[in-house]
Design brief:
single chain, mainly alpha, TIM Barrel, uronate isomerase, domain 2, chain A, 2 domains, three-stranded parallel sheet, two-stranded parallel sheet, 9% strand
């Protein structure tokens, strides 16, 4: 049986090994490919942007500030950050992080020696040297990895300047945006009021009525589509959709910041259905990331802001959670 499974797995792998990569949810910055500049240093590439990495280190008592993570202006010597990472490399044994990081070091960055506290400086220097070479620039790596399409994830308030620059360039790589509007849909976002003000500014809509608000969202979706977008992306911890017969008064309440938490939850549940209806109109595929409670570590949230790790999965009731949405648009 073991041999059969091994043979089947190998056959399946070999059948797709050379196929191009189509990445619908790539956590990449479009500026990498628009500007095509060398990555800054090994720590900025491998450690500080990856909350799976720094969360493990923080859990073992390493201060975030020592990893170069903190309030604007906080700095740390990138070589020291990489030394800390290497000295605690053993903590990642048996984790997916270890598997993909070892692959990156060995296959992508061509580092042959094992990562240890003793080899940290030599490996740091080797990576730094490679990052300055033409074959390690973002566009060259994109082509080497045989990526056919890479979809980034972009705020509804993003000016899409880097995507526009890419579309105007002669580089054939396909990097497209994904419309992520949570910041202007979810009243429980602490920056919701400021986000609405920014949405009004960039769309030149007053947002003084629910219809104006919907029109601004449609305009932004259209701008994303013009830059190649094919999908939207929505994150919600406890999945809830609800169709409101008259959402106008509730919209005015959430816009003013006077809605209760329950009213805010109901409004976002309604807006997910509005997004589904807009997807039927404009063809953007609607992606739902439900069931992950984010920012659970309040100390980290207060000191370092949102999306610094501490995501914990929740049991998700897809049947009841999507009932209102699917019964509104599921037959379209």
């Amino acid at each position: 049986m073991t041999g059969t499974l091994s043979t089947t797995a190998e056959r399946l792998y070999l059948s797709m090994k050379e196929l191009p990569i189509v990445s619908p949810h790539g956590h990449c910055d479009p500026s990498w490919f628009a500007q095509n500049q060398p990555f800054a240093n090994p720590a900025a590439l491998l450690v500080t942007p990856d909350h799976y990495v720094f969360r493990m280190l923080y859990a073992q008592g390493i201060p975030m500030a020592d990893l170069g993570i903190g309030a604007p202006g906080a700095e740390a010597d990138p070589r020291e950050v990489f030394r800390l990472f290497a000295a605690h490399w053993h903590l990642f044994l048996g984790t997916p992080t270890r598997l993909w990081m070892e692959y990156v070091l060995r296959e992508t960055l061509q580092i042959s020696q094992p990562l240890t506290a003793q080899t940290a400086d030599a490996i740091y220097d080797d990576i730094s040297e490679r990052l300055q070479q033409a074959e390690f620039l973002p566009r060259a790596l994109f082509e080497r990895f045989n990526i056919e399409t890479l979809a980034t994830t972009d705020s509804a308030l993003d000016d899409l300047a880097h995507h526009k620059s890419l579309r105007a360039s002669h580089w054939p790589g396909r990097v497209i945006p994904t419309f992520r509007p949570d910041g202007v849909l979810d009243p429980l976002d602490p920056n919701f009021a400021a986000n609405l003000a920014q949405l009004a500014k960039i769309t030149d809509h007053s947002l003084d009525s629910f219809d104006s608000y919907l029109a601004a969202l449609r305009m932004r979706r259209a701008e994303f589509i013009d830059c190649g977008a094919t999908a939207t992306d929505h994150a919600i911890d406890i999945l809830h959709t609800e169709w409101l017969a008259d959402p106008g008064p509730l919209y005015l309440s959430v816009a003013k910041g006077t809605a209760t938490q329950e009213e805010a939850r109901r409004f976002y549940g309604h807006m997910l259905i509005e997004m589904a209806q807009m997807s039927i109109e404009d063809g953007l595929v609607m992606q739902l990331h439900a069931g992950s409670r984010r920012n659970t570590n309040r100390t980290i949230l207060d000191r370092f802001g949102r999306d610094m790790g501490a995501d914990i999965p929740l049991t998700t009731d897809w049947v009841n959670g999507l009932d209102a949405l699917l019964n509104r648009v599921g037959n379209s």
